[in-house]
Amino acid sequence: MSASLSMPQTDQSGLSSAEVASRVESGQSNKVKTSTSRSVLDIVRANVFTLFNGIILTAMVLVLITGSWRDAVFGFVIIVNTGIGIVTELKAKRTLDRLSILVASDFLVRRDGRDVEVPHDEIVLDDLMWIRSGEQVPADAEIIRTWGLELDESMLTGESRTVRKSEGEQVYSGSTAVSGLALARVNAVGEHSYAATLTAQAKVYKKTVSDLNKGINTILKFMTFLVVPLCVLLVWSQIGTVGGWQTALATGEWRQAVVSAVAGVVGMIPEGLVLLTSLNFAVAAMRLAYKNTLVQELESVETLARVDCLNLDKTGTITDGGIAFSELVMLGDRAETDKRAAMQALYDLANEQSPNGTGQAVLAGLGERGYTAGEVSERIPFSSERKWSAIVRSFDSSRNLTWTMGAPEVLLSALDGDHGDILAQVNEYADDGNRVLLIVRSDSAVPADFGENPRLDPAGVPVALVLCSERVRSDAAETLAWFREQGVRCRVISGDNPVTVGAIARKVRLTGDREPVAMDARDLPADTAELARVLENVDVLGRVLPDQKKAIVEALHLQDHVVAMTGDGVNDSLALKEADLGIAMGNAAPATKAVAQVVLVDSKFSHLPDVVARGRQVMANMERVAGLFLVKTVYSALISLGVVLTAIPYPYLPRHITYVGALTIGMPAFILALAPNTRRYIPGFLKRVVHFALPGGVATGLSVLCAAWFLPPIMGWDIVNSDADLAALRSTSAIILFVMGVFVLARVAQPLNSWRGVLVVFFAAAGVVGMFIPFVASFFALHLPTGSTLVATLLALVGAAIIFFLCLFVAPHVARLVPRHMQIRDE
């Protein structure tokens, strides 16, 4: 693989083939295990091994052991719930991995006295490596010789300016050569390189904290402590109703006892809420995917609904990383013709064979104004070492005009006279976030050796200042205005000069009509508590180091802020991991995308309001429907307790609760959860849900227990010895559950003067119609009451309605009597 490139001469011969082989054998090559996203194992493990799945699976196995497979239908929710999570996150992983594929490049190294090209992984420790313009540095190295090398280290430091490197200085993997050339000795490879060391700290997987899931898990944990002893007591009480253990084992009645116990246990677990939460997150993730927003973790859809603090990386978020030509400012009192001449000269100065970023911006800006290439008799291309370029226009054999463009301080220092006023003007523009270049015109004769020995003419006259600035995204101001209206505090955190960042923040009206407060991160206190207090009054931070970004997030957490962080460089990965929600741009470093929960595939900051709106829809609607599921938990626990204490057969079967739950909770809840809702998140999710669920749950539980206690003696049913009488009681109890479920659904769906009222009527009618369909009635053990049983059922329903409205009336008064320290709080 010998390189046929013309490289500068050097007396360095590099490593020999034997030395290279020795280093490869000892593991000193540049191989590094890169992770662009969560592994398949992580995704499967996070979705399979949950507390909810454990409880439901145990209950399902118990029912299957009895042979009553119809009563184990509830267990399929595990497969559906787990499958949704795994499939959605795997889809996100595949998309992210495709985004992270980089073009494999070969790098030029010097070995055995000649230059050869080798792949990234075959670079070894102590290799002599050429760093060429346009290449990304593949390994850490020390500069041995340089020919004007300039690096873009923004991926590592966050600073968007280029850095000039001298001999003896260190260069780090992940930076990009913008111009020039250098020969460097590799001194760190693979996992020991700077970029790999930085990203390794961010590789440990951290699950997104979801308020919904946290509330559900709080309920599940409470239920776990309650379920085990209650299940044992239920089995014991049900065995007692069939004549004791000896009779139960001899007759096989133990199976029915287990099924009855599981009916109580399954009712207490809000399995539909867990499933609906996953479905809702999945639907939201798919909707966002259509807008080029990739959700790596489903829970992160919700998190942005709670965000009240958004930390923005300047480059790649507010700006697109490019340079834009702003304007040409003429110096002194010059005519319009002079300005047009200066504009044409500026175009020709920038119109080099390979213009740099600033040159490209000038060509694009002036090209839009109609300027094209003019006549140039001689050209001195831009050099980062000289800091200027020049062109010569020849009008005739006796008259030439030389135009020079470059760094103002370099050009002015070479000119005759005092130009302090121009320097002051340059500094003023620079403080406003501009990159400033100076144009000088000279009428002096051009030296014959000007092309071989470029030099500035001391008699030159400063003509104009060229102002360029970072290209601000067209949607940045509008997006920031939206966040201001929504009460989200935005801060810009950058590695650039705080004055420059502050100027850009003013352009996009980061703080509205108020002047943004900028601060140098080097002046930030080290103490986290003190840092938290300082941050409350700061809008823009410059010169921020990677560790400081993480510390800033930690400090904001001290003030109970929910923090989102955007970023695209390796330097952002630690902060993204520490934040409640990490948001990476599509052009971000692979390590950064790996730790982010949300990736903006097309790197458009304007997609964030969509993510917030979708999260708010999920949160507000799920809070609305969570009460439905928790009502079932409350009445199942209450009924189970009543059954244990009074030693009666369980008043309904698991399949009854499956039927009733599907029509009055599961399916209508799914429709309600997808309805439009832009309500801002209000802390206290669990408390509000519990306060809603208790009256309905207590009313339903008391209604079923009263029917189970009082109907048998009134109707003369022998529910212990007669299967027919027990079936009649269970059908009546199922009808009571259904009617009470419709009452609760109507309460959740309010207001009912719209499609919500139609929804309630539809599912109420569906439940009644289902009882007349033979297959449905047989499968779910539903029996239509007739004769005296119908009268008893109607009386029970009247009593249930009275209990329901009494509970709704009493609940607010009881809540006011509960001591403050005993009230339910979100953890």
TrEMBL record:
Name this protein carries in UniProt: E1-E2 ATPase
GO molecular function, one term: ATP binding
Classification via InterPro entries: ATPase_P-typ_cyto_dom_N, ATPase_P-typ_P_site, ATPase_P-typ_TM_dom_sf, ATPase_P-typ_transduc_dom_A_sf, ATPase_P-type_domA, HAD-like_sf, HAD_sf, P_typ_ATPase
Pfam families: E1-E2_ATPase, Hydrolase
Species assigned in the record: Bifidobacterium lemurum
Residue ranges of every copy of the P-type ATPase A domain listed in the record: 108-201
Keywords, alphabetical: Membrane, Translocase, Transmembrane, Transmembrane helix
Subcellular location: Cell membrane
Main location: membrane
Transmembrane segments: 48-66, 72-90, 219-239, 259-283, 625-650, 656-677, 689-711, 727-746, 758-784, 790-815
One CC-aspect GO term: plasma membrane
SUPFAM superfamilies cross-referenced by the UniProt entry: Calcium ATPase, transduction domain A, Calcium ATPase, transmembrane domain M, HAD-like
Membrane topology of the entry: Multi-pass membrane protein
